[in-house]
Amino acid sequence: MAFLKYLRDQWLFISGWLSFMGLTSLILWLSPSLHLSFSSIGYLLLLGLLLLLAVLAIDFFLKKRWWKALDPNGQPPMLDQYLKNASRSDEKLVQEYVNGLLIEHNKVMEQVIDNQEGYKDYLNSWVHEIKVPLAALHLLLDSFEDDISDEAYYQTENELVKIDEHVDQVLYYSRLDSFSRDYLIQEYSLKKLVQSVVKTQANYFIQKNLRFSLLGEDQRVLTDGKWLEFIFKQLLSNAVKYTPAGGEITVQLSKNKEGVLLSLTDSGIGIPKKDIHRIFDKGFTGENGRLSEQHATGLGLYLAKSLSDKLGHQLAVESEVGKGTTLQLFFPVISYYQEARG
User: Fold this and answer.
1) Is the distance from CB of 235 to CB of 264 less than 8 angstroms?
2) d(CA 114, CA 109)
3) Which of 72, 204, 274, 308 has the greatest CB tally within 10 Å of its CB?
């Protein structure tokens, strides 16, 4: 705290001193037994002022040490650093109060973290447990394929696939915070990964009579295969959802000196300009999500963007209403890896 700010805070004390000195000077001036000149009273006031400034300066420098403990180097205080430099009674009172708040805050935060970890463990366990009956349902449906109509089969299959996708979203959403403990970077074939994900959406392509093209030479990238498959699945699912029947979806693989680019282009309804800068926001469904017959959660593209950033990939979008959307996933070159291979 600056000295001038300190003086402004001491306005009551300074006002009291001025009132006292003024009253004292008036009494001395009116006293019949004393014969004081203006210069004598002025000299008395000057001595009092100097004494006042000296007291205020000493008090300021003593308190400045305490203020530094409250505001170290102008940086926000750490919640695990307790106050310990109090020397005066008022400072000790503040110190005990602040330290008590910090202790209580840390206890609450530890409890919150424990609850979150327990909740995440439960979600992970639930996801793995629910996948078993889902897999069983898929097998049962396949065994009944010849006994039910094609429409009923595909409708049931679609609903099971949706459940699978929502379960995966829950799993990956719960793992966002613990991403650093759950990934393995290796070299993967982009073409194989794309083909693997497209197979999971085969029913949708058949039912909507969508054409799919995979263009460009295969490219190898450094990534986590499991997480990247999930990312691409969110992008492809979104493209299929908003591409009308008879449309086309194209994946283009290319490479330049800066890295590898995967472009996913659809001939769908496109994204309005007012929505395009928000499509990666959590929970945002936009105009298309509100008007579409398909239920949108607003989590798919959010998770794809978040996981891409964590993996060091770059996800971008280009779109034109009525003509389609292109989602671009870029894999920058890792220089030290390339040097090691060379």
Assistant:
1) yes
2) 8
3) 308
If you search the block for the tokens 């017959």, which residue do you land on? Answer: 293
Whether 40 has a pLDDT exceeding 90, the answer reads no
pLDDT at 336 over 50: no
Q: Residue 154, Cβ neighbours under 10 Å: how many?
A: 15
| Chain segment 107-121, per-residue pLDDT in tens | 898 888 888 778 777
Q: What is the pLDDT of residues 47-73, one digit of tens each?
A: 888 888 888 888 888 777 767 766 666
- What is the Cα–Cα distance from 95 to 253, expressed in whole angstroms? 62
> 49 near 24, Cβ under 8 Å?
no
Residue 93: count of CB within 10 angstroms of its CB? 11
Strand partners, 51: none
What is the per-residue pLDDT across 77-136, written as a single tens digit (0 to 9) for each? Answer: 666 677 777 777 877 888 888 888 888 988 898 888 888 778 777 877 888 788 888 889
Q: Tell me how far CA of residue 34 lies from CA of 18, 24, 39, 214, in angstroms.
A: 22, 13, 14, 109
Domains annotated for the chain, with CATH where assigned, are 3-77 (no CATH), 79-174 (1.10.287), 184-341 (3.30.565.10)
Q: What are phi and psi of 252, to 5 degrees?
A: -115, 125
CA distance readout (Å), 186 to 30, 225, 316: 96, 8, 23
Helix axes 11-30 and 38-70, enclosed angle (nearest 10): 160
Please give the average per-residue pLDDT across 277-298, as a whole number. Answer: 71
Q: What are phi and psi of 330, to 5 degrees?
A: -105, 135
Long-range contacts of the stretch 320-323 (C-beta < 8 A, 24+): 320/270, 321/269, 321/270, 321/271, 321/272, 321/273, 322/269, 322/270, 323/267, 323/270
